[in-house]
């Protein structure tokens, strides 16, 4: 049986005394799912029917630190070129890094290739469906494991990314979630899931979508929000704070590493050190960036000391 919908008066009284209770799973699903049906970004290629578990896993790794609009074309080309884990495992690492392109944080590409090799060799080419088994693969954390287990295999698990944590925190009357996912975050998200796994999966996707489109880090559009009458933070102002500042990229060490990677990706062959030094005016930053890229296994040197992408 559904819990009765909380009234605004009741919610206001609750915020004055203690943190408001989260809405019941039934109430949340009732409010959220019709909105999701109308706003779901079905144009994302990995949400097309027939996407394999491998395709879902690749999309999740790529979307971890890159906007989905930038991920979509790379994902399409990637799946065309390496449709199975065995295909990616067998590819030259330099090609994998070239295909990764400018999505940033390229160590993810290396971890994804390692992950592909383990799936091909130890799991017969089939992406595991159990979150615990998925978490044992390189580069796969709690969120990504749950996302694959739920969005492809239809299991009933809480799928908690930054967007979901933020929305759940606000439903519970807080302006934002803490810096890292805690057991309490997972338990709170779990408590919002209906019993039926297929409905629970849609609620998880809908919460993510709500956090991406309506209840974002920078703004709350409570007037357009389908769960406003069940939300403990509805209508409140977001505090100004450093947590919502955009991370700087220009002029950082990451920027310098990105420029060096771009030079090597586009080069026809190994590159002399002088060309690397020319990508940035601050020599100390170039030295640091080169050392980090070597340590991360993203670049190497040939017998003549020239730089190149990994030769494997
Ligand atoms: Fe709550 Fe407003 Fe966020 Fe909706 S947009 S979840 S009402 S804070």
From TrEMBL:
One of the GO BP terms on file: mismatch repair
Matching Gene3D superfamilies: Helix-hairpin-Helix base-excision DNA repair enzymes (C-terminal), Hypothetical protein, domain 2
Domain of life of the organism encoding this protein: Bacteria
A molecular function (GO) term: 8-oxo-7,8-dihydroguanine DNA N-glycosylase activity
Matching SMART domains: ENDO3c
Annotated stretches, region: Disordered: 1-23
Pfam family, one: HhH-GPD
SUPFAM superfamilies found in the cross-reference section: DNA-glycosylase (SSF48150)
Cofactor(s) annotated in UniProt: [4Fe-4S] cluster
Reactions that this protein is recorded to catalyse: Hydrolyzes free adenine bases from 7,8-dihydro-8-oxoguanine:adenine mismatched double-stranded DNA, leaving an apurinic site
Coiled-coil ranges per UniProt: none
Domain HhH-GPD: start-end pairs: 62-213
InterPro entries named among the record's database cross-references: DNA_glycosylase, HhH-GPD_domain, HhH_base_excis_C, MIG/MutY
PANTHER family, A to Z: ADENINE DNA GLYCOSYLASE
Family membership noted in the UniProt record: Belongs to the Nth/MutY family.
Name of this protein: Adenine DNA glycosylase
The organism of origin for this protein: Glycomyces terrestris
